[in-house]
Specification:
It is built from 9 helices and 10 strands. The chain has 235 residues and is an alpha/beta fold. The strands form 2 sheets. The protein has an 8-stranded mixed beta sheet, with helices on both faces. A two-stranded antiparallel ribbon has the order 1-2. The N and C termini lie far apart (42 Å).
Amino acid sequence: MTSLLTKIERTLSFGLPHIDNVFPGFRVGEFAVLHGQSLVKTLTFLLSVRCQLSTEEGGLNSTVIYLDGGNTFNPYAISAIAQQNDVDPRTTLERIFVSRAFTAYQLSALIFETLENALKEYGSKLVLISDIMSLFLDSDVPTKEALEIFSKAVSYLSELVTKRKVMVIASFFPYEQSRRRVFLESTLLGRASTTVGVQKSKGAVQFSLEKHLFLKSSVIDVESNAVTLERFVEA
């Protein structure tokens, strides 16, 4: 038990007791994937706020780098979550460094050419990559090229977390089934050390810990009102 706690003590949790009791949080030095429906966006916003809290409050006392691959960044939702966590919304937003990509080539350039320098400059411990797969599903990008670039990007990220001692959390959402999507998803999930799925169904949120280095896979159902984030979820 002691060795397990030592391995996972530097974690960033959601701060939601129903989930935290099962999943203690994401660890510094890991490449993780968070996927599912719209609530996933809200959970990434929550992490971007909680990351800035002191270690005593369950945070990493760190700035955040947010690579937006799906035009999902919502400053209003983050401000509301900051207020719920009793921190200043303006200061919170100023400590999140957002870069938007509108093509697969732009996103890959952010990953390969600017991310590591940004980590050095801002001292961030958390990198959030929103909707990492969507731009690589664009039919304007040749399939072979999309698969090759994506595979290299994911490999790069999985090595970067160890090199820079940070955590990278990539998100993706449900897409139309296709052979390209299946390949991208399997590549991403195969490289991740932790994968978490979130679905909302029949008034409840199903949280699935699908893959973890130290914890067993598990599924819990949480009533939506227990999660306390419903007001922030976009339609």
